[in-house]
Amino acid sequence: MEKNNHFDLISYLELRTQRIEKILETYFPKAKGYEERVISASKYSLLAGGKRFRPILCLAGCEVVGGDWERILLFAAGLECLHTYSLIHDDLPCMDDDDLRRGKPSCHKAFDPATAILAGDGLQALAFEFFTHPELVKKVNKTRLLKAIYWVSKAIGLRGMVGGQMVDLLMEGKKGNPKVLKWIHLHKTVCFMEASLLSGALLGGAQSKELRVLSSYGKNLGFAFQIVDDLLDIIGDEKKIGKKTFSDVKKQKLTYPALFGLEKTKALASKHIQKAIESLKFFGNRGEPLKALANFIINRISTSSKSIQNEQVSL
Amino acid sequence: MEKNNHFDLISYLELRTQRIEKILETYFPKAKGYEERVISASKYSLLAGGKRFRPILCLAGCEVVGGDWERILLFAAGLECLHTYSLIHDDLPCMDDDDLRRGKPSCHKAFDPATAILAGDGLQALAFEFFTHPELVKKVNKTRLLKAIYWVSKAIGLRGMVGGQMVDLLMEGKKGNPKVLKWIHLHKTVCFMEASLLSGALLGGAQSKELRVLSSYGKNLGFAFQIVDDLLDIIGDEKKIGKKTFSDVKKQKLTYPALFGLEKTKALASKHIQKAIESLKFFGNRGEPLKALANFIINRISTSSKSIQNEQVSL
């Protein structure tokens, strides 16, 4: 099944995902007083599975520059808190109004909008608690840690992810163009993915040249990821992607399939993946995990789509 | 007018407020692309005035332990971003549903709920961008900075401010008791105020003993602040407090006036202020600014209330 014969991506992901889950469960605050409801709501969304792709990127960024990924697990776990907060808020009725997430009712459906807003707010704060946790601080270079937090804060902020989500909402039902669409993808998705990778690399001791190469890889990977995500809204299997399909279509979201059609969009995703893999040459064999991750993204088009699943069943 | 003849609180506040405003304006991100709307919304709420009480506490905490407050202005400014984010989200229709804030339409009225959620989210991220800004990092001890961020993150998180707001909402219209009320105040308001003060002290080079004293002062001041805030919901002058009065009453919020009546509530606020001032003895003359701030809080009962304003007019 795997394109990368020499690298066992499944075991690679399994080990790291398990370790991230363990950290999230261990360090997640336990209710001590009356705050039970908001703790439950945030935990409900955070521990609902998910690919843990951003923390994985962070760990992979650390590893590719020769760092020890086990030392920065708390940082990686913080990135997942940020991602989950963004999903909870994006799903709200006044935002994207999505009822299903990670295969379960979204947070505001399982609880209510006020609780969901607070759960998201709390998860954002929790991320920074993880980033500055004494257990992490004693294991990494402090100057690099502060820089990593700075990069991530910018990536998820007003001129990053939040700005991207704003424009994504504003463009609903409007006639868009490739320039605006690229801007939305860059800000809503790519910046944070790139920052996840680069923060891991920074904490792993990356040099400037390594950061430049990873920045190029991260950007291409991020664009490919979002393009594939847009594609799966149309051709995806709801059970496999854990959310309703045709959600973007119904909301008249500005997406690549909407602008260019399915085939051209697939080709564009492939082009980004090729470019991402190309930049990895710099790292030689060390780049294998990142190469496998890039292939994993593009393979989602087939492994998570409806038609291919049926073909697999009929084999 | 001032109770503290030897200390000019007005000049003290004026200088620091001006410097904080200047930092907020200078470092506030400028829209570079299509994110104009969310930048405007967050700026609208952040630069709408306000007492800047949390950043002031942070600077005062730094000063009282002999630190240079001008070095940590970016940190203090970050605290105001956090406070403003919490106000924007608290005011949302599905939360406290308040239309007026800092004397202007609240963010979701001036814009819309989706934009207000994103503006709040972006301000929370911006706070951490400020906390780890290279301009700040080069001026302070990095270990202390990371610890300060850790404390603040916890104070505003699921088991802090966010948890407090959750329970505040859950108790609306319900029969409460002093224990729950104290828990709400502690989590919703006191923890963050205390953390604002302590983070400043930490960055100013505070010793453990100093932090313990300031923790006691901060907690008492925080409780007094929230009790006075509850009082002003009933006896306050809307123009002076910048928000609608009887808002808590209408929503059947659990407050001290609701549980104990006005007089007992005033006495309780005074008791907390006395305790706060008592703990300052440790600092000798250096404690003057914090003493004046404590008196400022309790004096709001008279300076911001309707009746006294009329009396002053008639003098």
Task: Describe what this molecule looks like in 3D.
The structure is a homodimer of 315-residue chains. Chain A is an all-alpha fold. Helices cover 70% and strands 1% of the residues of chain A. Chain A has a two-stranded antiparallel sheet with strand order 1-2. In chain A, strand 1 and strand 2 (104-105) form a beta hairpin. The radius of gyration of chain A is 19 Å and the shape is globular. Chain A starts with 8 loop residues before the first helix and ends with a helix. At the A-B interface, helix 2, helix 6, helix 8, helix 9 and helix 10 of A face helix 2, helix 6, helix 8, helix 9 and helix 10 of B.
**Secondary-structure arrangement, i.e. CATH architecture of chain A:** Orthogonal Bundle
State the strand order across the main sheet of chain A.
1-2
The largest contact between protein chains, plus residue counts on each side, is: A-B, 61 and 61 residues
Give the CATH level 1 class of chain A.
Mainly Alpha
- CATH-assigned fold name of chain A: Farnesyl Diphosphate Synthase
User: How many beta-strand elements of chain A?
Assistant: 2
Percent range for β-strand residues of chain A: under 5%
CATH homologous superfamily annotation of chain A: Farnesyl Diphosphate Synthase
Oligomeric status of the shown chains?
Answer: homodimer
Count of structural domains of chain A: 1
Structural class given helices, strands, pairing of chain A?
mainly alpha
Order of helices and strands of chain A: HHHHEEHHHHHHHHHHHHH
Helix content of chain A: over 70%
